[in-house]
Amino acid sequence: MFCNQCEQTAGGHACTKAGVCGKKEDLAGLQDLLIHALEGLALFAREGRRLGIVDTAADRFTVEAIFSTLTNVDFDPERFVELIHKAVEHREALKQQIAAKGGKTDFPEPQAGFQPQGTTADMAKTGADLKLLETLDTDENIRSLKQTLLFGLKGICAYADHAAILGQSDPEIAGFCYESLCALMARGLSVSQCVDAAMQAGRINLRAMELLDAANTGTYGHPQPTAVPLGHRKNKCILISGHDLRDLELLLEQSAGKGIDIYTHGEMLPTHGYPKLKKYPHFYGHYGTAWQNQQKEMPAFPGAILFTTNCLQKPGADYTDRLFTTGLVGWPGVKHIGPDKDFSPVIEAALAAPGFSEDLDKGSVLVGFARNAVLGVADKVIAGVKSGAIRHFFLVGGCDGAKPGRNYYTRLVELVPKDCVVLTLACGKFRFFDKQLGEIDGIPRLLDVGQCNDAYSAIQIALALAKAFSCDVNELPLSMILSWYEQKAVAILLTLLFLGVKDIRLGPSLPAFITPAVLQVLVDNFAIKPIAASPEEDLKAILG
Ligand code: FS2
Ligand code: SF4
């Protein structure tokens, strides 16, 4: 196997024997075979679009299938076998529609005629033999840029899928997926063509995040500043992880009045701020920290646990029997709640588990500072900047992970001077989310904008401030210090670059799939830089 799509890739190079994430060789082969099958589908879908054929079922499927291959989503080989077969079915259906309109159906690429054969193991071997990532091009820089495009695409599809679940979609996103999958197969592309494709991925990801923002705020209202307890109260309990607000709502509805409290885990924390979710009295608090600590934290949770979307790790034997997955997330042998979203097994497991036997006060954290809440006090913020009470904004956001170097982010937030405000989002915040940083003229110094996809909200805040100060975003007293782990972070980074944001500091390490020459292009055009060896160094460089 060869996989280098995430930050924890083995040796900072690639996972070649087994994934550090737990992805085994057979699963890696099946995921690559799925991308191969989707490339075949893309050839026909692109031709179909040329003829005015837009197959919404194929579009929806493509987005889901690509998202399935994102880090820590689905570890179940059998589900990938199913997806591979479905990709071929969609391709053949499109082929018929195209043939009926006299379009092109004789593509020379092997992907166009691919037929899955044999057992799951046979298919895994076929996938491995493709050497998908290693053969994207003979030129290492083109390969690097094509990997950037593919990984960015995985992030885009995650957000597009979440948005589609709540009824928000745009055919341009699937159209871009097809164009990109075709670009992966194309030979002879130049560096500038590939850079342009990566920038377009940034643009499309902005659209996907915009749709998701519209979906979340349109369905559940704009997040409001809300204190979330970190302790617990005596009752039965369910822990919900991931990013899917609709799953949370359904769980809240189905568990209401049953003597169960719902706790959020990881990226679900910001959901406490949404008016239509916080109205449920049994939506109680938050448990645990970021995804990489789940094997340590979950055994002690005395109830049922539900994973939506992603960031699942190999479950420990001490909680597998009360662990559930839903949506695209999966682990072989873990009970999966299907599309009917009947969460009764989760509720029954919670009722059978001991629950919390007493109340425990561990303080609270504030969430809910998305664009509507922050821009609602824009006058105060602008006055604070003008008077000098607020010297600088730091956006410290992104993914968390297991590497020791990630302590940089904790230390940085601790060291940020008292006349500066920290905006945060995504699961990287768990390095400092419970720090009491106080206020500046009534504005909290630590503002949680939301989930990783709420990077959209942070961008809107930055654009509104730039407008108020009649300056460019890059001229604002704002520095972005980002941490990355999986491919949604790649997509967000591409969006920031597409918007022309400069001087981003990225850590804890730079992507293994970026070659020195491609990095130089990014440095030359965007002054992107790795985080310094110490936060003191970066703070000195930023604040002078
Ligand atoms: Fe964190 Fe994991 Fe949000 Fe990522 S909980 S690394 O999925 O997308 O961030
Ligand atoms: Fe390795 Fe990351 Fe790929 Fe998992 S997703 S196999 S950890 S590079």
Automatic annotation (TrEMBL):
Give the cofactor note text: Binds 1 [4Fe-4S] cluster.
The biological process GO terms on file are: response to hydrogen peroxide
Give the main EC class.
oxidoreductase
GO MF term (any one) = 4 iron, 4 sulfur cluster binding
Q: Write down what this protein is called.
A: Hydroxylamine reductase
Principal subcellular localization: cytoplasm
- Source domain of life: Bacteria
EC number from the UniProt entry: 1.7.99.1
In terms of InterPro entries, this protein maps to: HCP/CODH (IPR004137), Hydroxylam_reduct (IPR010048), Prismane-like_a/b-sand (IPR016099), Prismane-like_sf (IPR011254), Prismane_a-bundle (IPR016100)
Q: Which UniProt keywords apply?
A: 4Fe-4S, Cytoplasm, Iron, Iron-sulfur, Metal-binding, Oxidoreductase
In which compartments does the protein localize?
Answer: Cytoplasm
- Organism the protein comes from: Desulfobulbus oralis
Q: Which family does it belong to?
A: Belongs to the HCP family.
Tell me which residues bind hybrid [4Fe-2O-2S] cluster.
H243, E267, C311, C399, C427, C452, E486, K488
Entry coiled-coil feature ranges = none
- Note the SUPFAM superfamilies from the entry: Prismane protein-like
Pfam families attached to this UniProt entry? Prismane
Q: Is the Oxidoreductase keyword given for this protein?
A: yes
